[in-house]
């Protein structure tokens, strides 16, 4: 090889490396898979599980105040109307979440509310044309009750009775009888959010079936290693890695004073010296306070459904379950069976 040709080759190589460096590190580390939901279907457990894989990187923060912003940056779903302080708005800030990814790692993100966004699929496709999509699902009726329980947990819902919350859907669509701080536009439209077939179809249309992995929470719980092997193969990473599975973000029975306790906690957080006061209360008085209030107040939410309401909803959602089963090529008829014993408390709350 003559000197000129060698110099040309060196120049091309140098230029390629310089351009590569100039694109900055986080241009390399882009998310290529997106766990988009649905909430309360094992998405947090799956996120914590996938993070253990040496070939996968998902943004994470040990700081409780920043945990959700790293795990669920709520990017690409502006139509949900989520407050800006709760989400990562621009692409540069979003890409910074992936700066620490090791070289060659497959990057991903988990935003369980993204599935409810109508604009998200097209925006993800524009950002990453070869994106792989992961969706987790469970039976719509149990999902609705679990979602209602979770919204109560964070005070995004103020109707303690699940039946009453469902009866309010039409009013709320028109902006009436809304709680002071709902999570996002449409979060109280339980039936609409539980029509999973529409949401899956949206992703199938934009990305093609071969790029969408639809997992069922029941499979993940019954045969976690088989489920994970299938998912890791889909993501194109080593599927022989054993990952540890644990339940995450599980919400216990909510106490009768739950919303009052939340409000007091928030006020104390804003007060000078309030955090110290909270610690003192937790250490010395909390047990007495709980014993006293539990005697007086019935639990706010025990995660069960009134059996009559459950039967009505199962009948209403039978066509949806059939449609989803057909779409996924699976028999989901067992989703039409009642799952809950009668709730002791549902009737108590109907008159509130």
UniProtKB/TrEMBL annotation:
Coiled coil: none annotated. InterPro entries: NST/OST, P-loop_NTPase, Sulfotransferase_dom. It comes from the Bacteria. Pfam families: Sulfotransfer_1. One of its GO terms (molecular function) is sulfotransferase activity. Residues 32-242 form the Sulfotransferase domain. Keywords: Glycoprotein, Transferase. This is Sulfotransferase.
């Amino acid at each position: 090889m003559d000197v000129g040709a060698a110099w040309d080759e060196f120049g091309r190589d140098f230029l390629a490396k310089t351009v590569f460096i100039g694109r900055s590190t986080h241009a390399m580390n882009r998310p290529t898979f997106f766990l988009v939901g649905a909430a309360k279907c094992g998405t947090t457990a799956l996120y914590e599980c996938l993070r253990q894989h040496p070939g996968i990187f998902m943004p994470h923060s040990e700081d409780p105040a920043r945990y959700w912003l790293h795990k669920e940056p709520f990017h690409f779903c502006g139509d949900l109307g989520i407050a800006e302080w709760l989400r990562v708005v621009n692409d540069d800030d979003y890409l910074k979440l992936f700066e620490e990814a090791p070289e060659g790692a497959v990057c991903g993100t988990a935003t369980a509310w993204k599935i409810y966004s109508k604009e998200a699929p097209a925006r993800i496709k524009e950002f990453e044309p070869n994106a792989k999509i992961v969706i987790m699902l469970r039976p719509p009726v149990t999902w609705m009750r679990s979602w209602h329980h979770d919204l109560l947990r964070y005070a995004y819902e103020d109707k303690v009775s699940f039946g009453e919350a469902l009866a309010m859907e039409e009013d709320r669509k028109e902006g009436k009888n809304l709680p002071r701080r709902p999570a996002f536009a449409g979060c109280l439209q339980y039936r609409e959010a539980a029509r999973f077939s529409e949401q899956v179809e949206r992703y199938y249309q934009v990305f093609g079936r071969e790029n969408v992995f639809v997992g069922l929470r029941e499979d993940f719980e019954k045969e976690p290693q088989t489920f994970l092997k299938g998912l890791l193969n889909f993501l194109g990473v080593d599927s022989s890695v054993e990952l540890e599975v644990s339940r995450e973000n599980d919400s216990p029975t909510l106490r009768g004073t739950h919303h009052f306790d939340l409000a007091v906690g928030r006020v104390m957080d804003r007060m000078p010296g309030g955090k110290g006061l909270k610690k003192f209360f937790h250490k010395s008085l909390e047990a007495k306070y709980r014993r006293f209030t539990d005697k007086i107040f019935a639990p706010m939410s025990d995660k069960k459904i009134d059996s009559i309401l459950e039967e009505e909803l199962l009948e209403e959602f039978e066509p949806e379950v059939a449609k989803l089963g057909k779409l996924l090529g699976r028999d989901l008829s067992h989703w039409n069976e009642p799952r809950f014993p009668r709730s002791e408390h549902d009737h108590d709350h109907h008159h509130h």
